[in-house]
Design brief:
Helix content of chain B: 40-55%
Order of helices and strands of chain B: EEEHHHHHEEHHHHHHEEEHHH
Largest sheet of chain A: 5 strands, mixed
Distance between the termini of chain B: 37 Å
Strand order of the largest sheet of chain A: 1-2-5-4-3
Number of strands of chain B: 8
Number of helices of chain B: 14
Shape of chain A: globular
CATH superfamily of chain B: Cytochrome-c3 Hydrogenase, chain B
CATH topology of chain B: Cytochrome-c3 Hydrogenase, chain B
CATH class of chain B: Mainly Alpha
Number of domains of chain A: 1
Distance between the termini of chain A: 46 Å
Shape of chain B: globular
Radius of gyration of chain B: 21 Å
Number of strands of chain A: 7
Strand content of chain A: 25-35%
CATH class of chain A: Alpha Beta
Number of helices of chain A: 4
Helix content of chain A: 10-25%
CATH topology of chain A: Beta Polymerase, domain 2
Oligomer: heterotrimer
Order of helices and strands of chain A: HEHEHEEEEHE
Largest interface: A-B, 39 and 44 residues
Structural class of chain B: alpha+beta
Strand content of chain B: 5-15%
Radius of gyration of chain A: 16 Å
């Protein structure tokens, strides 16, 4: 539990100007047909239900700072992926981090980007392993990562210009 | 080989360790810029066996996607099945009966041993010793026969169902597994004498292929690669799932960071898996293998869920985003080989090509898992 | 033997037949031996115990298309397999199988075998360079540096034996070892060799160098299959590959013959000449001994993994050469004293 508190504290410096740092989690609203899109902030999730501990949503400008805080706390990069919310006209990029020691805390960072111009700073200077994950996300969703050393298709053919995991992709 | 040598960037040529090569364990291409026999730079090109499993997940219902998990890492398919079953059970709140959990653990550990046997045979084959391959495959046949009698497949298993298993095990399986454990213990002693203690092997592996802890953290390397560098991380111990807390087993960790350490980690892991299987067989409870109340249609509540299991290669993470329908909205498969392979480009600079290929073998790559 | 044309042609024909039969059936021995060490039967399908396997393999190789990659220098490309096979064939001419069975006894037999072994290493270079393939080039560079490094201790050990026997003629070297196994050069039990206790070490050095000269595992970096596909003979198909293959096995037989003649008494019977067959000095003992040595070659190949290139070169330059040089000087000194 200790590292969870420490991480939450370190990350909440990014959200100092938000009205409250704990918006209600969406699974509390059972009656609504459409889940309310959550704002920026940190939520502590139930590990046994969800499988991760901290859920942080940020703006793309705050990303590098948050990732640097997480790197300094000793997390390793688990994966970077995207989710296409076509109904909200947004692309979400999700970063998973986990720890090597017994003080377990799985942290998830998310940012939402407009679907028409998805751009995000690359975290390759901090986590070198992000290079392949970002190339893959670019392949599948078309998200541009600024500052990436070599943003060419990784899994798709070199001349691919389609992005398969977008919801309006028809093969 | 300890002194760093100065490589000449203008006297290099590009050697393509191409998609078809006996040593790359699958279709993997590495463009190596070489200076003589030393590697100046290496660039890995993936995607030759990319089948877009993640898009397939969006077009199939949850139970229909289960067979795909066996095709990702075909050598350790049970653990991938387990991860997928775990994440869906977590989301839907399905309870798994005790007997099913124990049988799941037994089959996952048997699969781990068979995967490590393939790794051992293929690795020593890469180094030039042709014989241990045959012995390893002989032992692996015993496991494959056992698992075939219960699951119906020899390699790409699809044995788990949400909430339990496809089929219960019978007494033949239990007695066969016990006989196998006795046999495997003797074989492990033989491997220790024939292979691990061989001086040529030790010379080739010791002090080669350094992967330090900082590199592991930056790339997210897990599994025997991290445990060979002194990082005590095993998902079964750090983040227990299923009934692993009930068993008494050790997680081998060696701090030397070289290929020999990774080799020893995997050899010890086989012994520890045998211990887990023995304890699980002793404690196996009676009961059903499927829950009484199982939803007819799997429709997890909207939201995102995560589960991680320990496969033979490392930490397999699976992130599921559900929007309440019967197909997954997004299913992300975090494969351990993907993160482990990424180390290669940085770590192999300045190595001889023979050492680089020995290093690649010690990372235990399965390319279809990397490419998904 | 009078040097008539008929005798020469007969000798060459017999040598080629012997080499061919050996090359073919040594492959069978190797595969059966591999099966023995790997808990499997080996070739079983063709003929009883798989004995027809080699002719059928030869037939298969001959019917394959002979591919010549584009852009290679055809002359160099085609000459390499011939260069691999030729020295082994020629060296057979001078090896004495028994007191009277020798194709043509040459007074400088040892020198001739070494001259042609050096020619054999040239075939590796030519094959790798002529293939216009980076893998072949790397492998031939490795193979040539290995061959050169291991020829030196081989020659130094042979010079030691030549000093003891006093002649470069292979027949004479065997004559000095006749009469029971305690006369063999591997044991230093004769007054004339000066009771040099390092002789078994010399034997081991010669054996290791034979394994290395013929590019057998654990020294088979030239064709390190898992790293360099097939090394210097990647681009060869059909009979080109067949010739390399046969040349390798012929070289193994030459290496075994040399080991047996220099150290193990050639055709001598281990318990001395008792007058009645089979305990006389005859060709049967020679053949038995070389096949035992070849069995050990096969055993070693299937047991050990490969060394690295610098491990290999270190072994030769840092260990084998100093030890054999020391032995040479010691033998010379002891011979002078006694």
């Amino acid at each position: 539990m200790k590292i969870q508190e420490k991480t939450k504290e370190a990350l909440s410096t990014l959200f100092a100007d938000l009205p409250s740092s704990e918006p209600e989690p969406d699974d509390a609203e059972e009656g609504e047909k459409k889940p309310v899109p959550r704002g920026n902030g940190i939520i502590e999730q139930d590990y046994l239900l969800k499988g991760f501990h901290l859920d942080v949503q940020l703006e793309s400008e705050q990303l590098l700072e948050a990732v640097q805080i997480i790197f300094d706390l000793g997390y390793y990069l688990e994966s970077i992926t995207g989710v296409d919310w076509i109904k909200d006209d947004q692309l979400e990029v999700v970063y998973d981090f986990s720890r090597y020691d017994f003080d377990l805390c799985r942290t998830v960072l998310r940012t939402r980007l407009p679907r028409s111009a998805p751009q995000l700073p690359s975290i390759t200077p901090i986590y070198t392993g992000a290079s392949w994950h970002e190339r893959e996300t670019h392949d599948f969703f078309g998200i541009i990562f600024d500052g990436h050393p070599h943003l060419v298709p990784l899994l798709l053919p070199e001349d691919a210009d389609f992005h398969p995991l977008l919801k309006d992709f028809k093969a | 080989m300890t002194e760093p040598i100065s490589l000449q960037p203008d006297e290099t040529f590009v050697l393509n360790v191409g998609p078809q090569h006996p040593a790359t364990h699958g279709v993997l291409r590495v463009k190596m810029t070489m200076d003589g026999e030393y590697i100046y730079n290496a660039e890995t090109v993936l995607g030759y066996i990319h089948r877009m499993h993640e898009k397939m997940a969006e077009n199939r219902t949850y139970p229909q996607f289960m067979p795909n998990m066996g095709r990702l890492d075909y050598l350790s398919a049970m653990a991938f099945n387990h991860g997928y079953a775990l994440v869906v059970e977590r989301a839907c709140g399905i309870e798994v009966p005790e007997r099913a959990e124990y049988i799941r653990v037994i089959t996952v550990e048997l699969n781990r041993i068979s995967s490590h046997l393939v790794w051992l045979g293929a690795y020593v084959l890469d180094l030039g010793g042709f014989t241990p391959l045959m012995y390893c495959f002989d032992d692996r046949e015993q496991i494959l026969d056992l698992l075939e009698s219960v699951t119906g497949s020899r390699l790409t298993y699809c044995y788990f169902r949400f909430g339990g298993l496809y089929n219960d095990i019978d007494d033949d399986f239990i007695s066969g597994t016990r006989a196998f454990i006795k046999r495997m213990r003797k074989e492990l002693k033989m491997y220790a004498k024939l292979v691990t203690g061989n001086i040529i092997l030790m010379r080739r592996l010791k002090d080669h292929g350094p992967v330090d802890q900082d590199m592991c953290q930056r790339y997210g390397a897990t599994g025997p690669v991290a445990r060979g560098s002194g990082i005590n991380y095993d998902v079964r111990r750090n983040e227990p799932y299923s009934v692993y807390p009930e068993f008494d087993f050790e997680v081998p960790v060696y701090g030397e960071c070289d290929s020999y350490a990774r080799y020893l980690v995997r050899m010890d892991e086989m012994e520890q898996s045998l211990r887990i299987i023995e304890q699980a067989l002793d404690k196996l409870p009676d009961g059903p293998v499927n829950p009484k109340k199982k939803p007819k249609l799997i429709k997890p509540p909207p939201g995102d869920y995560f589960a991680a299991v320990e496969t033979a290669r490392g930490n397999f993470g699976i992130r599921m985003v559900s929007d309440g329908s019967k197909n997954a909205y997004r299913l992300k498969l975090r494969s351990p080989t993907y993160s482990n392979m990424h180390l290669f480009d940085e770590a192999c600079r300045g190595m001889l090509i023979a050492d680089a290929l020995a290093f690649m073998g010690s990372l235990d790559l399965v390319i279809p898992e990397m490419d998904r | 033997m009078s040097l008539t044309l008929f005798n020469v042609v007969l000798a060459v024909f017999i040598a080629i037949c012997f080499v061919g039969a050996n090359a073919a059936y040594l492959v069978w021995c190797e595969r059966k031996g591999a099966g023995l060490f790997q808990r499997r039967p080996g070739p079983m399908e063709n003929g009883p115990w798989g004995l027809l396997q080699p002719p059928i393999d030869g037939l298969k190789l001959m019917t394959k298309q002979l591919l010549i990659p584009g852009g290679v220098d055809k002359a160099i490309f085609m000459v390499a397999p011939v260069l691999a096979m030729f020295p082994a064939l020629i060296s057979f001419v001078t090896i004495p199988f028994s007191n009277s069975i020798v194709a043509h006894p040459i007074d400088v037999g040892v020198l001739m075998i070494f001259a042609f072994a050096a020619l054999g290493s040239m075939s590796l270079l030519v094959a790798g360079w002529g293939s216009r393939n980076k893998y072949s080039m790397i492998s031939s560079v490795r193979a040539v540096s290995q061959t050169v490094a291991y020829e030196i201790p081989l020659m130094i050990t042979t010079i030691t034996i030549v000093m003891i026997s006093g002649s470069l003629n292979l027949g004479d070297i065997v004559q000095s070892q006749l009469g029971g196994f305690w006369h063999w050069n591997i044991w230093p039990l004769q007054k004339q060799v000066g009771f040099n206790l390092l002789m078994p070490i010399s034997f081991l050095i010669l054996f290791v160098c034979s394994v290395a000269e013929t590019n057998r595992a654990p020294f088979d970096l030239g064709e390190a299959e898992s790293e360099l596909v097939a090394g210097f003979h990647t681009e060869y198909s059909s009979m080109g590959f067949g010739l390399f293959f046969m040349g390798e096995y012929a070289n193994i037989v030459i290496g075994a013959c040399l080991t047996v003649i220099l150290f193990l008494g050639g055709w001598s019977c281990p318990i001395g000449d008792l007058g009645f067959f089979p305990f006389t000095h005859n060709v049967g003992w020679f053949l038995l001994k070389i096949y035992l040595i070849i069995f050990v070659f096969i055993w070693i190949r299937w047991t050990f993994p490969r060394t690295t290139i610098y491990g290999l070169l270190n072994l030769s330059w840092k260990y084998l050469i100093p030890i054999s040089l020391f032995n040479l000087l010691l033998t010379a000194g002891l011979l002078k004293v006694f």
